[in-house]
Amino acid sequence: MKKLVFIFFFLGSLVTGFAQVNGPIKLSENKRFLAQYDGSPFFWMADTAWELFHRTDRAEAEYYLDTRVSQGFNVVQAVALAELDGLNSPNSYGEMPFSSITPLAFNEKYWEHVDYIIDLAAQKGIHIALLPTWGDKLYKDSWGMGPEIFNEENAYTYGKWIGARYAGKKNLIWVLGGDRNPRKDADDVEVWNQMAKGIQSSAKTDNPILMTFHPQPNRPAGSSTWFHQEDWLDFNMQQTGHCPNQPTYRIISHDYGLNPTKPTIDGEPLYEEHPNCFNAKELGYSNPDDIRRIMYWNVFAGGAGQTYGCHAVWQMFTLDRQPINATLRPWKVSLDLPMANQVKHLKNLMLSKPYFTRIPDDDMVISKQEDDEHFVIATRDTEGSYAMVYFPTGKSVEVDFSKMKNRTLKANWYDPRTGVSFPYSGTELVKGKNNITPPSSGKGQDWVLVVE
């Protein structure tokens, strides 16, 4: 019996080991994408669980992580000093992050819970995009609970402390900001720079770090507006917001064209079960069709991945808590919504072809287009070995395949709803102009044509 128990334990450890994070994420050689520690592609497929550390106990955190792993997520965005009264409202074990604000005195028991969840995520193959603080701790703006505690001096001190605490973790990406844009007539930019420098000062040479900035919606771009030239900003992040009718690909394209080259990611798009434009009464709630369209648009425009979010999940809403912005149901129920189970199809599609040579190519679609929900977008690799064209509503367009490597082309239709492929059966494709009609059309009838 002892031998059997040992064998079972050993095999179980092996199974867990295959999934666990073994090294930090880094930039690809061409600075367009992210890569695993061994150099293989890493497609950022994240979920926003902002209140994970603040509002879940250990069993709930494991349930959440297990569910997201099964759905194909590999990153979770969460906040150490949480948005929802994170400095005055205790975590699930009655602990608050500080025993004193002035000066900052850290409550070890609170941070041990954060440690536990970060380590648990690593065991399950999940990277944590860690926000040291939500932005309302710098300034509250017209909303937010605060209190405002950070300035240039203590931002550096806090950054150095939290950077040192997690310097050895292999599954961390640092995210400054937290839904705040620096103000024009304030020292906000320098406060964030100091926090970043504090984190950098504690980094270990054998465990390099990645860092970005999570803004509020901003046009024409997000983090690059203030920090693109900073050495601590390794990749750009946008928040494209919670309205379904925005040409989000324009924001990704803006950052894609900047110098120096840095990856770009939409870190907060329209959430599932979120009131459209925060107006549930008149505009209703988001639907999977709009969310899916935004995701494929962004990635085809050059994004190095995509973040998903669910309105109930980010706030870990339960029936005994005050809902934020008309939440529909408890977070555990909302974990299993349609788009949460469809995001893996986007990740699988992008990883199915040569990854680091992929570029956006708007010129492939030669039909005249408007910036509306019908906008067709294309991407291909630099070698011309493949191309992908995304049709958000099945609209027929003329597409130019003259940049393909070979004259003989084959193609498949890819269903973003199911991940199923089947052969293209229209008029034979040529290395040149082609009129393409998807299998079906209308809202929610989106398709990807994959040409080789």
TrEMBL record:
Keywords for the protein's UniProt record, in alphabetical order: Hydrolase, Signal
InterPro entries listed in its UniProt record: Apiosidase-like_cat_dom, Collagen-bd_put, GH
Highest rank taxon of the organism: Bacteria
Lineage: Bacteria, Pseudomonadati, Bacteroidota, Cytophagia, Cytophagales
Pfam families: Apiosidase (PF13204), Collagen_bind_2 (PF12904)
Annotated SUPFAM superfamilies: (Trans)glycosidases
Protein name in UniProt: Glycoside hydrolase family 140 protein
Domain (Putative collagen-binding) ranges: 359-452
Domain Apiosidase-like catalytic: from-to ranges: 28-356
Keyword Endoplasmic reticulum: no
Leader sequence segment: 1-19
Gene3D superfamilies: Glycosidases (3.20.20.80)
GO molecular function per UniProt: hydrolase activity
